[in-house]
Amino acid sequence: MSSKKIVSLLPSSTEIIYALGLEEQLVGRSHECDFPEAVKALPECSSALIEEGGTSREIDTIVRQSVADALSVYKVDADLLRKLSPDVIITQAQCEVCAVSLTDVEKAIGDDLNRAVEVISLSPETLDQILSDIATVAQKLEVQERGKNLIEELEERRDLIKHKLKFVESKPKVACIEWLDPLMTAGNWTPELIEIAGGVPVLAITGSHSPYIKPEDLVEANPDIIVVAACGFSIERSLQEISLLMQLPGWNELEAVKNNKLFIADGNHYFNRPGPRIIDTIEILAEIINPKQFIFGYEGQGWVKFDLL
Question: Which of 5, 10, 174, 228 has its CA 20 to 30 A from that of 39?
């Protein structure tokens, strides 16, 4: 095992570093890296250019305009990177608006670090690719065996759920809302996680980016269960705007509404982070979709039921 100095500019890769037992080599983080708690003591190498406190609609408008103008919504602190002098920087190429991107890093470091820096860029779109990224990070940081053991542990937890649901025939339709205004459903790995947890995903396709939808699309799909896991939002933050859903035309006619099956999950910590805790996300969905079969203990912390009655 080497002793490379690492800067992680992704919450998910920070969690991978800790899960691999390499936290002592971590010298810097992004402003969004907040788990485990101890990582908050490290210097922040990035910042958001969008002010906090805006509504979902305001945030979406600013982000879309920034992307249209080829502007980043994040800033990387090149001076701090130079001071920290990392051997490895981990970032992503999956989504320009979800976290600091490869382009942001390349612009920031340029030739200014005066030394060779390895940039690891992750871009998973499926569960297998998330696990593959863990293996890649482990290989690049010369702890392949730790990576192999971690992946085996995560796969065992996934397979336990699959096995328990093998003969369960009832599979409710599940819509996972990733943004409230405008409406967006969770794509990439989320539909696959819903399937593993015993549901039938609607309005999104595994491996495809999260799509914007119209209220009539939700009505037509008529899900039995709705899970709100807004990108970057905690449960409390999503609850601040949950009334937006209830104002949608046709809302009261949905099966999920009639049967009181609306759930709010911590999108920021679970659904939106393609790291080791993605298996926690499957367990959360299993608790929601099949409460008689699974109690993992996430209720109240990872998700809550929003009582519509």
Answer: 228
